[in-house]
Amino acid sequence: MSAGRAHSAGGRAGHGVEAGILAGRLLNRRQLALVAVSGGADSTCLLHALRGLGFRLAVAHLNHGLRGDAADADAAFVQSTCDSLAVPCFIEVVDVAAYQRREHLSLEDAARRLRYDFLRRKAAQVGATSIALAHTADDQVETLLLHLIRGAGPAGLGAMKARLGDLRRPLLRVWRTDVEAWLRERSLPWREDATNADARFLRNRVRHELLPLLATFNPAIKTVLLREARLFAARQGRVEAEVLRRLGLQATQIEQALAGKTVIASGDRRICITTTKPASPAAFDVPLPVPGSIQIAGVGTVSAELLALGTPATAAPGHDAMPYPGPGRPHHQVLVAQPPAGAGFPATQLEPRLEAACDLHVRSWRPGDRFAPAGMTGTKKLQDFFVDAKVPRARRATVPLVMCGDAIVWVAGWRRDRRWAPLPRQACLRLTFEEERSAQGARGPEVRPDHHGEGEA
Fold first, then answer.
1. What pLDDT is attached to residue 280?
2. Using CA atoms, how far apart are residues 180 and 374, in angstroms rounded to an integer?
3. Distance between CA atoms of 143 and 109, rounded to whole angstroms?
């Protein structure tokens, strides 16, 4: 990205930004919102506008590792902007290209998956109740055309939702020209991403080639397409509401389901409206006290207990890493070596102590995670372990990992890292994972009305 020029624009252009944000009533000033900021005009405008309107904010910026020095300059710009606004900023670097090759995805899809994983993980860490994205009315029009090109049903032609689960799109009523005019009027700089002109990406071709062509047939084509997207979304919402009503849901439950939340219907059925390519479950990363326990919504309860010397010899059969518990068992236990202070792996020569010496935490899996499965030699990618163990793809994001620093201690319910095996006559930890019933599917089937293509951007 290069710096966008900040200069004054005449007139009152751009004043629709605050009105557009407030009209949607998507955010609560009393609750923390995590704002995804790339440094471009849209996200820079969203950050400044929300701050000016008095919302509680934190910022997340992901460096995709694709543009070298330009990406580093973007991150520095975002950090500097946040410092000037006194807003906490969280920056992370990922290797999108490596993830793309490993998962056999398009570059756009790989970047999108890693971006949403990062945003949900950071939202969980900072306690944000929502994630604010800077998609504009232009993005909405482009998404509608992308869905039409790729093929989509009525739901896909509704394009992006302003509110979907934890995602919020406050600028979805605002055009990009208004965003840039708003920034210029206030002499606020932003960054320009050179890849936005790269014709290898279909969205860029829609933006720079298809839309200008359509405008030769109708100069107001973007306004027309935006109106059509809203009509399709409204129609789909009425259809879904009627389906939910016939399933026995009350008005409040219908409203929650249409907002992307899971609700419980009669007969203990879990109902969730989602997409054919559902968003990943919210990532999590929370401290695990020793002794103590934590409860993770949609996952279950993980607890740690410090055992006295010699306990491993009297451990109950089947509660250690051999045999390995798998699906169908709601309660899992394993014994592990007591983690020493400041170590990524257990230092077996250290004298064991009867107090917690390493800060444990529990998080969801991330691309690139590796561990040394007990009963095997060498290390293995967690992704490959899940495939070999036939862990359903939909469940992998809800498998908790007990961590010591960056080291995996236990893939809860599946396998301990062999380097954390307890030694005879040494103190150890007993880790327990009790799955939430909904994570096992015990609450009955989920009813998922079919959507197509939500969440492209």
1. 46
2. 56
3. 14
pLDDT value for 442: 32
Measure the CA–CA gap between 420 and 345, rounded to whole angstroms.
Answer: 7
DSSP line for 152-193 = --HHHHT---SEETTEE-TTTTS-HHHHHHHHHHTT--EEE-
Sort 449 into a burial class: Cβ within 10 Å, 0-12 / 13-18 / 19+. Answer: middle
Mean pLDDT over the full length of the chain: 78
- Bridge-based pairing of strands 2-4 and 190-192 is antiparallel
The secondary structure of 54-73 as a DSSP string is T--EEEEEEE-SSSHHHHHH
Which carries the bigger pLDDT value, residue 248 or residue 189?
189
Share of the chain above pLDDT 70, in %: 76
Q: Is-contact 322 374, C-beta < 8 A?
A: yes
Tokens of 44: 């820079």
Q: How many CB atoms lie within 10 A of CB 366?
A: 16
Whether the Cβ atoms of residue 96 and residue 65 lie closer than 8 Å to each other: yes
